[in-house]
């Protein structure tokens, strides 16, 4: 897989904003990507040095809505989340600098 296929988008939450100061970034990644592929993709795309990668699979939430035919239930998609920690001597990711 190419680096653009592995890193899908950044995850912007309160908890991820708090990690930006410590060079900890959160991304939504491809479900089939492993930690080594994620590390190589981040280093290639952003030109930084990665210290470690933690991953987890986030289960989708069940949603319900009311229609005139009764309640309809659905589910949001599952996705894989990667928390990437950069080395202390590495530069920061420029995209996140404007957010903090």
Topology:
Layout: H1 3-6, E1 7-10, H2 14-20, E2 24-29, H3 35-46, E3 50-58, E4 62-67, E5 70-75, E6 79-86, H4 94-97
Antiparallel strand pairs: 1-2, 2-6, 3-6, 4-5
- Order of strands across the widest beta sheet? 1-2-6-3
Strand content: 35-45%
The description of the largest β-sheet is:
4 strands, antiparallel
Low-confidence residue ranges: none
**What letter string, H or E per element, gives the SSE order?**
HEHEHEEEEH
* Overall number of strands: 6
Query: What is the averaged pLDDT score?
Result: 94
Percentage of residues assigned to helices: 25-40%
Q: How would the global form be characterised?
A: elongated
Structural class: alpha+beta
N- to C-terminal separation?
31 Å
Q: How big is the Rg?
A: 16 Å
- Per DSSP, the total helix count is 4
